[in-house]
Each structure stands twice: as structure tokens, then as C-alpha cells.
Specification:
By secondary structure, this protein is of the alpha/beta class. 35% of the residues lie in helices and 17% in strands.
Length: 165
């Protein structure tokens, strides 16, 4: 049996958007108001999976260790409220440094890897992001996309409506 998932961009969706790279753990601010609607979906059997571009790593703005610490904080905040984030996929590349890659959104590499790894049915899944590239990456993987404004609260009803369409 296939799983279903809620794919989530990180910056501007799960943590406060800063209009630049979040380079320090002290600047990483989890949007805790996102947890209740996502917990509801988690309770309905959806895997919560982060899909995020982290080009600041290639630009040497922060390290993978710093990113791991931010993700540890994010995972803990969700787990404290009974919602588990299954995995955080990230693209550490930046086109000006590393050239083209298959994982950097708007390409669908991270989504396709998650779909294969966790046996996810794209037709039963949705990607929530705050940039058109998030929706484009979702579409390329056969997943429906929802575009929200940076830091906008995720609407459980809207997600269910898109999933039903």
C-alpha cells in the first residue's frame, strides 16, 4: 500500500522568512502556528516531509551542521505537539557555485527521491510552498501544489480541498 504525504517548503512555510539566508541557529524562528493544521494531517496518516533549497551551504554562508541543528529544533517543536516530521530533504547546491543539479527546486529531484524512498502515491499528496518554484517542483513529480504567502498560516481546509480535487 502506498503512503500519502504533505511536502513542505521550509523557509517562509515552517519558519519565519528573513529575505536572506538564515545562517545562524539564533535567527531560526519556527512558525509554531503551522503545527496544529499539520498535526491534523499527520493524524490522518500523511507523512510530513520537508523539501528545501539550502544554497547557502554552497555559498559557505552556513554549514550542514548548522542546518542539522535548525532541523533538530524544527523536528522537536513538532514532536512536542504530537506531529512527526518524517524527513528533511535539502539541496545544498547553488547554481552560481555548483552549476545545475537535479535536486534544486524548481526541479523535482528531492520530491522524486522522497516518493521512491517512502513509497508515496503522488496523486494522494500535496506540496505547500511560498514560491512558484515549489509548485513547479511538485507538478514535475505529479504532486498537487499549494502556493501560500511567506509566513501565511496553512489552511487545513484548503489542503483537504486541493487533495479532493
Amino acid at each position: 500500500m502506498k503512503n500519502k504525504a504533505i511536502f513542505l517548503d521550509r523557509d517562509g512555510v515552517l519558519n519565519h522568512e528573513r529575505n536572506d539566508y538564515i545562517c545562524r541557529v539564533e535567527d531560526f524562528e519556527v512558525l509554531e502556528y503551522q503545527i496544529p493544521p499539520l498535526k491534523k494531517l499527520h493524524d490522518e496518516g500523511y507523512l510530513l516531509i520537508i523539501i528545501t533549497n539550502q544554497g547557502g551551504i554552497a555559498l559557505s554562508r552556513y554549514t550542514e551542521e548548522t542546518l542539522a541543528e535548525m532541523h533538530r529544533i524544527l523536528f522537536e517543536k513538532f514532536e512536542e505537539k504530537g506531529a512527526k516530521i518524517t524527513h528533511a530533504y535539502y539541496c545544498p547546491h547553488h547554481p552560481t557555485i555548483t552549476g545545475d543539479c537535479d535536486c534544486r527546486k524548481p526541479k523535482s529531484g528531492m520530491l522524486l527521491e522522497a516518493i521512491a524512498t517512502y513509497h508515496i502515491d503522488p496523486a494522494l499528496s500535496v506540496m505547500i510552498g511560498d514560491k512558484p518554484r515549489d509548485v513547479e517542483a511538485a507538478s514535475g513529480a505529479g504532486v498537487k501544489g499549494i502556493l501560500i504567502e511567506p509566513d501565511e498560516q496553512i489552511s487545513y481546509e484548503k489542503v483537504k480541498e486541493v487533495l479532493a480535487s
